Amino acid sequence: MLKNRYRSETNILFLIFTTFFKIALFVVGGGLAMIPVIEDTFVRKYKLLKSDDIVDMVAMTQTIPGLIAVNSAIFVGHRLSGWKGSVVATIGVLIPSICILCLIAAFFPLLSMENQHVLTAFSYIRACVTGIFGCVALRLGKKILSTHRDFLIVGLLIVGMLYGVNIVLLIVLSVLIGIISTYKQQKETKSEKHS
What we know:
Number of strands: 0
Radius of gyration: 21 Å
Number of domains: 2
Structural class: mainly alpha
Distance between the termini: 47 Å
Order of helices and strands: HHHHHHHH
Largest sheet: none
Number of helices: 8
Strand content: under 5%
């Protein structure tokens, strides 16, 4: 089984580094676009993580300040191999990113934003990234949305965003719904145990 093959710490560290290096080199669209690749590699292919770990990773990367790509690398690396995994994953995700940024910075002044080839390339990249985000949203939605409370919160956020409600207010309302719902659920569970 593949999981047994990657039991040695050196092999896991090498897998972490190469995976995040390739992700940073080839995945277009930033940190959220990395999620399907991380899931395919570590959950489906090598079975080193569970789907719940990916959901936890997304929650953590969205709540902790910093780059989503780096936060994801730190999370996955730590889950697989502690602090060494975090360091290796971070180095793996940063090396290609820094090199690509240096190349872009060197040649960016030569690119004309009125050049039709550049504009066409950017429009294709935007379409690709939109598709990736849609895929991420569907995959996460299948895993996370299981109760009426979950659908209520998502519906509230969508309606609020469509009507231009302040996002901070929407997040606070979602948290309050979650707290009230969890409190009611715990109360019902306690009353069932006592009866």
